[in-house]
Amino acid sequence: MLRFRGPHLRWPTRAPTRRLLSTPPPVTVVEKIIMDGIKATGPISFSTYMQMCLSHPTAGYYMNPKNPIFGSKGDFVTSPEITSLFGELLGVWLMSQWMQGPQLPIRIVELGPGRGTLMQDVVRVVARFGKDKLKSVHLVETSPTLRALQEARLEPEAGKYNCTLGWHDSIGDIAPSAEEYTMVVAHEFFDALPFHTIQKTEQGWQEILIALAESSEETYPRFRYVLSPQASAASTLLGFSSSRFKDMPVGSRIEVSPIAFKTMHAIGELIQGNSTESLGCGLVVDYGADRAFDQSFRAFKKHEIADIFHEPGECDLTVNVDFAYLREAVGDFGPAVPTHGPISQAAFLEGMGLSMRVEAAAQRSEDGGVAIREAAKRLVDPSGMGEEYKVLGIGGHASGAVWPFVPETGA
Ligand code: SAH
């Protein structure tokens, strides 16, 4: 079985190819800003590079309405866009946690909702099982373009279920509440957060930075990596931010995202809800594993992998998620914010009854279930999405293992 096709997967619908460029593409808006910045003040971190490329206020990948981003005409396809069963099963898990608690009014928080597809499916399940308990939906989204898409899709749903809908720039803008049960969903969000790359040397942890290529006029790509001349306060702190990094040998390189840590800690605060017990639950779904990665940073353009320095601001950038780091970020909440897993997306979806739902949907379909079976197969494909994507559960009331987060056998 081809279990792992290397770190370079987003969901290319064609095999990844590396384009050989005879004529380098024109300098993009973001590229020019980055080049000028490096000329003025020197090499920049991966974090600054990613932030500029994805979130520059007008020319960033997620900010610029010119970028189609999702779907067959865009740069990548995500699970909620493949079938609504994905969001429904996430919603069923969240509701099963809520049902075991005091059944407080519900609010749902989603980080990086994209086109709003996942939230639409989750809301339907929560509203159906929770009757009139769903009170509000909070979307954490920085892109005005995507906010508009989300509003168009979710405003009618909110009206149907009589709940409020609102947007926030950051999860920190949402206050913890002891009167509500908070459900948090983050699908393909953490992989878009800026990170730093650090390398262990004899002198300690030093940062790998991005500099201009030797001769940026003719060379493509126009950037290259350099090792910072010495350890900085930031690189040293990052190197100490997890006990797992302490004994790594000299030469080790890791991608670390302090923003991911901070965001996960904020999720913990919402789930703890100013209480001593868990007042919420959450699911983080993303590609990655329960460990740090060294060189998983990659770019996506039209369903293919591209060089990370290719057409900055016009390609999606993504990095694998270190789920152990996310677990550590909520470690100080103790039993109020337990974590479950991560397990593979295939194990999660199968455990939540995907096959049964597919068969039920197939009975009702006009094509005899061909499309729905195909979609479901894609989500659990062991050589693709099923294994690459992991699901981390957070919160809930059960002591001991929480279904379907049980140790996988034979993995
Ligand atoms: N969850 C969706 C979209 C994933 S793409 C899906 O699976 O289809 C990443 C999403 O995160 C986009 O909505 C993007 O605009 C948003 N995003 C990226 N960085 C962000 C940040 N720093 N703060 C808030 N939203 C961010």
Automatic annotation (TrEMBL):
| EC primary class | transferase
Q: What is its EC number?
A: 2.1.1.320
Q: Name one GO molecular function term.
A: protein-arginine omega-N symmetric methyltransferase activity
Asked whether the UniProt record includes Metal-binding among its keywords, one would answer no
Claim: DNA-binding is one of the keywords in the record: no
**Family annotation (Gene3D superfamilies):** 3.40.50.12710
Question: What reaction(s) does this enzyme catalyze?
Answer: L-arginyl-[protein] + 2 S-adenosyl-L-methionine = N(omega),N(omega)'-dimethyl-L-arginyl-[protein] + 2 S-adenosyl-L-homocysteine + 2 H(+)
**Which GO CC annotations does the UniProt entry carry?**
mitochondrion
Q: Where are the transmembrane segments?
A: none
Q: Where in the cell is it found?
A: Mitochondrion
* Role according to the record: Arginine methyltransferase involved in the assembly or stability of mitochondrial NADH:ubiquinone oxidoreductase complex (complex I).
- PANTHER family attached to this UniProt entry: PROTEIN ARGININE METHYLTRANSFERASE NDUFAF7, MITOCHONDRIAL
What is the protein's given name? Protein arginine methyltransferase NDUFAF7
Q: Which organism is it from?
A: Roridomyces roridus
